[in-house]
Amino acid sequence: MAATCKNCGAMLTFDPASQMLVCEYCNGRFKPEEIETERKSYVEDQEAVAANEVYGTGDEKLLDCYVYTCNHCGGEIIINGTEASTKCIYCGNSAVVFSRISKQRRPDVIMPFAISKDKAVQLIRDRFKKGRFIPDEVKNFKAEHVRGIYIPYWIVDAKHTDAVVIKGSVGSGKHRRTVYSGRAGSMNVHDLPLDASTLLSDESSTRLEPYDLKDLKSFDEDYLTGFYSNVTDISFGDMKKVVCTRANGFFREAACDDVKGVSGKSVVASKPHTAIDYGNMRYAMLPAWFVTFDYQGKHNTVLVNGQTGKIVCGVPWNKKKFVAMVAGMSAALTALFSFILRFLLPALLENSDDDDGGNVILFLIVLCIIAAAGGLTQMKRTVKSIELTQSKSIFNFVKKRQ
Amino acid sequence: MDILYLIGALILGAGLGIGTAFFVCASMLKNSNDMGDSVGTSKDYTDPAVFTVKVDRLKSAERECFHNINEIPLTPLYSEPSLDEEVHKLEKK
User: Fold this and answer.
1) What are the chain A neighbours of B8 within 8 Å (beta carbons)?
2) Which domain holds residue A170?
3) B61 CA to chain A: closest CA distance, Å?
4) Beta pairing class for A311-314 and A298-305
5) Are A43 and A76 part of one and the same domain?
């Protein structure tokens, strides 16, 4: 289906800035709901044809591909089993929306892109410029692919109940002791968005949150024009696992917050139960930009929330600059601390009894270990984030489109 | 004794200096290169939790069985779908 201009018949594409369908030729602008519905119903009768039927091959690799005919130029477009909209590689028609949207799993709601392609790239460049350890080549990256993709989500309500035992400690020093508290109750979870595409990792999609669901609109195919989209392909098992894990985390957090005057709190026993409201779920399309660039032979994919502009990625770092900074700062701080301790140690050790002197040294050693461990934790999180940005799965999610 | 204090100050000073420098630089690296490391929180997706039982100092025996309070939690509204089934809306029982 190609949404065409009422005035000149050229293709229309959705413009995030004006939230209208725009004609590049005559500059006509139309609201998606203004486009007549006969054309949309025509799409419902179109059938996808398996690649094997078209090409008569028994190659198993083609089983998951479907062939569509672009109704603008007649070119054949091959897509995988979960894509719902794409662009024609022959004529660039960006308004190819497939019958599977109408026939199989039509979304209930959609959040139109509010961030344009140029704006998304500009947001990334602006943020990269602020990065102290981002190499200059990355700051001036050349985008290999910039793709606006509607990610399928299930928006879920659920009720969670649990009874948890929380371990913590009260007092300090010699008076420190462990205490246990109990909290039992329930919590309503509402509007929890769950990525419904198995091709995109949950780790990536959850970091795109939060979306402001007030901007959701009733689904209309015309919002997909100019963008790519996928359809849901997760199972109830996948959904249940994620909802239970997240609801459980929210309840535990609330229970720990409710226990006052206790430090180092952690849940040591629980019996959670989550009931998903399966009849009240909404199938939604939420927008994200995927910007891919190469650095040192590796593909990096930056995600941008298509509504809020939130950037999600871990960027390769300038290792030389980092090591130089650690070395320089270490030398300066070592000199400073040594100078202070040179005078502080004799005063502390000579004017106190044996136990106190030992405690001071022990305290300083523990401080060194805490600082190093804290640094290591931060490094691990950054490296993990970089690995996620460079993961093949996310690159393939973007690349495997026409 | 002075030399011992000097050596002690150098060793501890180096430990503290390197540890602190590493922590500060790693934090700076995270701020610089790790973007969007946050997910939706309970404030975004939940109503405040309602606690029906609160016990602040559980005794040893209570600790072992407290979580069993949640034995019969919710009446199921739907027939539980097969875990392999593709997600779709369900009708209430």
Assistant:
1) 341, 345, 361
2) 117-316+390-399
3) 11
4) antiparallel
5) yes
**Interchain contact, B90 vs A279, CB within 8 Å:** yes
- Which of B66, B78, B83 is the best substitution to test chain A (most A C-beta atoms within 10 A)? B66
Q: What is the ipTM of this complex?
A: 0.82
Which has more pLDDT, A221 or A100? A221
A296 and A192 in a common domain: yes
Report CB contact under 8 Å: B22, A330.
yes
Tell me whether residues B19 and A258 touch, CB distance under 8 A.
Answer: no
Mean pLDDT over A65-90 rounds to: 63
Assigned domain for A341 exists: no
- Shortest CA gap B89–chain A (Å): 5
Cβ contact A209–B40 (<8 Å): yes
Is A236 domain-assigned? Answer: yes
Q: What percent of chain A has pLDDT over 90?
A: 49
Query: For A322-374, what is each residue's pLDDT tens digit?
Result: 999 999 999 999 999 999 988 888 887 777 665 666 777 888 889 899 999 99
A42 in reach of chain B (CB within 8 A): no
Residues A235 and A256 in one domain: yes
